[in-house]
Amino acid sequence: MKRSHHTLICCTTVQQYLKEIIQDITSNSINVLCMTFFWMDGYEPNTSSKSNRKGAWAATCTFVLYDLMDQSVYYVGSSLFAAGPGKGHSSDNHSCIFRQMVEENIELKYENGKHKPIQLISMFHQMKFVNFYICHMGSLMDNPERRANFCLLAGNSKNHGIFGISCYFDYLQLPFQACLSCYKHYKEYTLTGNWSYSPTNQLCDKCYGYSIDRLLKYGKYHSPIVDLPNADNAPGLYQAYKPGELTCNLLIRAWSYAIK
Q1: In angstroms, rounded to a whole number, what is the distance separating the alpha carbons of residues 87 and 107?
Q2: Quick check: helix, strand or coil at residue 16?
Q3: Which of 19-28, 134-143, 172-181 ranks highest by mean pLDDT?
Q4: What is the DSSP secondary structure assignment for residue 112, as one 8-state letter?
Q5: From 51, 223, 227, 250, which residue has the greatest number of CB atoms within 10 Å?
Q6: Are 107 and 163 contacting, i.e. CB atoms less than 8 angstroms apart?
Q7: What whole-number distance in Å separates Cα of residue 260 and Cα of residue 234?
Q8: 2-11, 163-172, 237-246: lowest mean pLDDT where?
Q9: Which residues of 50-84 are buried (b: 16+ CB within 10 A; e: fewer)?
Q10: Mean predicted confidence (pLDDT) in 78-95
Q11: 3-state secondary structure at position 173
Q12: Residue 25 neighbours by CB distance under 10 Å
């Protein structure tokens, strides 16, 4: 296994999860932490096999198995768990997949809120029963066609490329992508593989270094992205001058303002 797989255990998400289950783990049982990552995307089949058919959509799960007794990663794998026609346009409905994911995630907790392990026979553990504790690390949906399905803002990667954030990247005073200095810092960070601290803990006056936190705290536009005369009291007007979060409260206030 790569060193980066082993050091995933140091990240904040996993450490918080371990704190929540540590009291429920017994020494007379075999316990494994299963860290999961979901990836979903729409794609076009190649021309030799498409035959005028629509695009396709697929969802995979990558899981990293970490033995809590040995304190080591012993297996990493990926599995396709959903696939179907369509890339996620309004006529393509994959909601049943997401509903099932939510329902199964709810089943991973007891009524009192404690985490419920899945008990399976493990070949790695000499065909013994093992308690698998599922820790979801994150997910990536890489097809913007699905934005309308979830009532997200339209647009391209230059303005609404990040969920819940309004940012016109072409108008930023500093580039969002890392400068050469930050690039070298990030490269050293990934090679070191110490995920216990953030790679963006140092400030840079030349870029935002791919950091959403720095973008929201220090990001500014070199000029307003829109001119709205007689709208000085409009909710969220400040986002014409800098990136900002699109919170539910802000959107509700903006809608109420617009229909007056």
Answers
A1: 29
A2: helix
A3: 172-181
A4: T
A5: 250
A6: no
A7: 11
A8: 2-11
A9: eeeeebbbebebebbbbbbeeeebebeeeeeebee
A10: 76
A11: coil
A12: 14
Tokens of 201: 């803990």
Q: Map tokens 């995933």 to a residue.
A: 8
* pLDDT > 70? residue 260: no
pTM: 0.60
Query: Measured between alpha carbons, how far is 206 from 143 in angstroms, rounded to an integer?
Result: 30
Which sequence spans correspond to the domains of the chain?
3-142, 165-258
Contacts of 19 (CB under 8 A, 6+ apart): none
Record the tokens describing residue 233, joined without a space: 């009291």
Report whether 84 contacts 143 (CB < 8 A): no
Distance of CA 182 to the CA centre of its chain: 22
Residue 50 above 70 pLDDT? no
- Number of separate helices (H) and strands (E) present in the chain: 7, 7
| N-terminal to C-terminal alpha carbon distance within the chain | 60
Three-state DSSP at 116 gives coil
Q: Which range among 54-63, 64-73, 197-206 shows the weakest confidence by mean pLDDT?
A: 197-206
- For residue 123, which amino acid is it? M
pLDDT of residue 141: 75
The CA distance from 153 to 162, in Å, is 10
Residue predicted with more confidence, 4 or 149:
4
Question: Taking all residues of the chain, what is their mean pLDDT, rounded to a whole number?
Answer: 83
Distance CA 167, CA 175 (A): 12
DSSP bridge pairs for 34: 65, 134
Tokens coding 243: 């990136």
